[in-house]
Design goal:
This protein has 10 helices and 8 strands. It is of the alpha/beta class. It has one domain (about 1-295): TIM Barrel (Alpha-Beta Barrel). Helix 3 (about 70-85) links the parallel strand 2 (about 55-60) and strand 3. Helix 7 (about 195-210) runs parallel beside helix 8 (about 230-245). The longest helix is centred in the last third of the chain and has 16 residues, at about 280-295. It holds the Pfam family Amidohydro_2. One of its GO terms (molecular function) is hydrolase activity. InterPro entries: Amidohydro-rel, Metal_Hydrolase, Metallo-dep_Lactonases. Belongs to the metallo-dependent hydrolases superfamily. This is Amidohydrolase family protein.
């Protein structure tokens, strides 16, 4: 099974400034807990070692929370990486949609065929009952939405990383800006695996999937302190596929971040086992074809 990895990261901490990895004080409440193991360079040669034995034919680089004062610098750097190493195939850049420089940044990305979209993590509430409609920096913030408007004008997609309790706002965004494709990152972050948590996540996913311009990355579903097991993740994977269909779903490693909770082979062998009853065409969608279509990765 060939793979287009729909979500990968590279960084060189000796050359570049990524605050969350370079600053002495770590982020609070990082979803996988202690991430000190990530404070090292991670380049395509490291990725290929992790992915040894798998036929990775392309990959989508997603912004790494690079120095926020220089979003375009990350794209310049990663294009050089791609030229030297053959990975990544395309990139999703950093932008801050509620900043005054957003229109110029997005115009620059739109003029660069290597850049297919952007990611800006909107402000999120810590739990479902704390959601505040229209909060500053959220998907409902008029200033944030004004910046979002420039994505469609520049032919860019939007990688959305947010917990499932904000997917109602995401649906409104998808409806209001139908010319912009939204790619939900990390399966909507179903961290609560209780029956109640899974039920609420499933309902939110169904709401979002009702918009035809939304895709989903099945990734980032590791559980801190536990091995990545088929038994633990089968329901999440199959639910996402059932709701979105294989034509709008894609698999991704989220490496090296998910190396905190799993080996590369655990993740992709797990995806293989979980989808073993699907047709060859459906599996092609999930492992490479949806990513190819969504991000314009030639195979």
């Amino acid at each position: 099974m060939k793979i287009i990895d729909a979500h990968m990261h590279f960084w060189d901490l000796e050359q570049n400034y990524l605050p969350w990895l370079c600053d002495p004080r770590p982020l609070e409440n990082f979803r996988y807990g202690d991430y000190s193991a990530l404070r090292r360079n991670y380049m395509p040669e490291d990725y290929r070692k992790d992915a040894e034995g798998f036929d990775v034919v392309g990959g989508v680089f997603v912004e790494t929370e690079w120095d926020p004062s220089d979003p375009l610098g990350e794209i310049s750097w990663v294009k050089g990486v791609a030229m030297r190493h053959g990975l990544p195939s395309v990139a999703v850049g950093q932008a801050f949609l509620d900043r005054v420089d957003a229109p110029g940044i997005l115009a620059a990305y739109g003029a660069d065929p290597f850049v297919k979209g952007i990611r800006h993590k909107p402000r999120a509430a810590p739990r479902p009952d704390a959601v505040e409609a229209g909060a500053r920096g959220s998907m409902g913030d008029p200033v944030w939405r004004q910046g979002y408007r420039h994505l469609g004008r520049n032919g860019l997609s939007f990688d959305l990383q947010t917990p499932w309790w904000h997917l109602g706002e995401a649906r409104a965004l998808a409806d209001d800006f139908g010319d912009t494709v939204i790619i939900l990152n990390h399966t909507g972050l179903p961290a609560d695996r209780s029956p109640e948590g899974i039920s609420a996540w499933r309902s939110a996913l169904r709401l979002l999937a009702g918009a035809p311009n939304v895709r989903i990355k099945i990734s980032g579903i590791g559980i801190p302190g536990q091995d990545w097991l088929v038994e633990a993740n089968r329901e999440v994977v199959l639910t996402a596929i059932e709701i979105f269909g294989t034509g709008r779903a894609m698999f991704a490693s989220n490496f090296p971040v998910d190396s905190l909770v799993a080996r590369y082979r655990d993740i992709f062998n797990g995806f293989d086992v979980i989808t073993s009853d699907l047709t060859g065409d459906e599996r092609d969608d999930l492992f490479w074809r949806t990513a190819s279509r969504t991000y314009g990765v030639a195979v």
